[in-house]
Amino acid sequence: MSINVIAQTGNEEIAMVYVGKTDAGHFVEFVESVQPPFPREEKWVLIVSPLLGCPVGCPMCDAGGWYKGKLSKKDILAQIDYMVKKRFGSNKVATKKFKIQFARMGEPAFNPAVLELLRELPTIYDTPCLMPSISTVAPCGCENFLEQLLAIKNQYYANGKFQMQFSIHTSDEELRNKIIPIKKWNFAQIAQYGERFYAPQDRKITLNFALAHDHALDAKMLRQFFDPKIFIIKLTPINPTMNAESNKLKSYIDPYSQDATKNQQLTKQLKDVGYEVLMSIGELEENKIGSNCGQYIKRFLDSEDNIKTNLKNSYEYQLVVCGEETDTVN
User: Fold this and answer.
1) What is the pTM (predicted TM-score) of this model?
2) In the predicted model, what is the mean pLDDT of residues 75-85?
3) Domains of the chain by range and CATH?
């Protein structure tokens, strides 16, 4: 098992983005990050790709626009293994919180290899604090994946060792069909699954909203479907990606603004109907790195020169091409 890292960018103290090449010659992108002021020894987050590109085509995400298929279990594991070996030299992960998100490029529910890997991860890495995270739009046709995921969570990651997240982005289901342009579960279906997925001592299931300024978020409407005892609301900015710019999506949450009035009003509305609310903004430098939600693969394929864009506060770090041999972990 190996992956050749052929390009990278970032800040070692915040986040690093890697462009790798699999044994079969496919390009894949993956990320590691920390959350200052916490050092890597306290919390370390890996974000790996389950697909080669993404067929969904959400208007705020740069992963869409090209899709080359599913990655194998071996190729997903190689992304994780590269970063683990780079930082720790072995399979012993010396951090108090070790989170792996299957969310860099592609909808994870499209790839059964993610399930295979989830079953094996606890036997691969020497750590008591492994916490996988699946973020999905709940595509129609992926019911078997989600049923198996429920069983895997109960068997291997019960009692708060798994993070389940649904990407919602608006409380208007008609508008959501435009934001996430594939057939997917409606709110009632997501809520019913969540009620079965959640068990005492589990982490609450996250409903994620990357909210645009003209997209609805009606707390009372959400409350009709989603029980606050089971679901938590996460509010995030729309990151300054190239697709968000071209589609003229302006984030409701402005991480650069000093005026938090709008955020406080929205948070209050959600709390008033019983929800816990997480305002997830993170390190602003990650936007410049492109580790939050941006994608370097397509631009790397278009040109192996250092990437430059006209976006403000995004993709400002140069993509440095590496030597394949020196950056290989077997």
Assistant:
1) 0.89
2) 97
3) 3-329 (3.20.20.70)
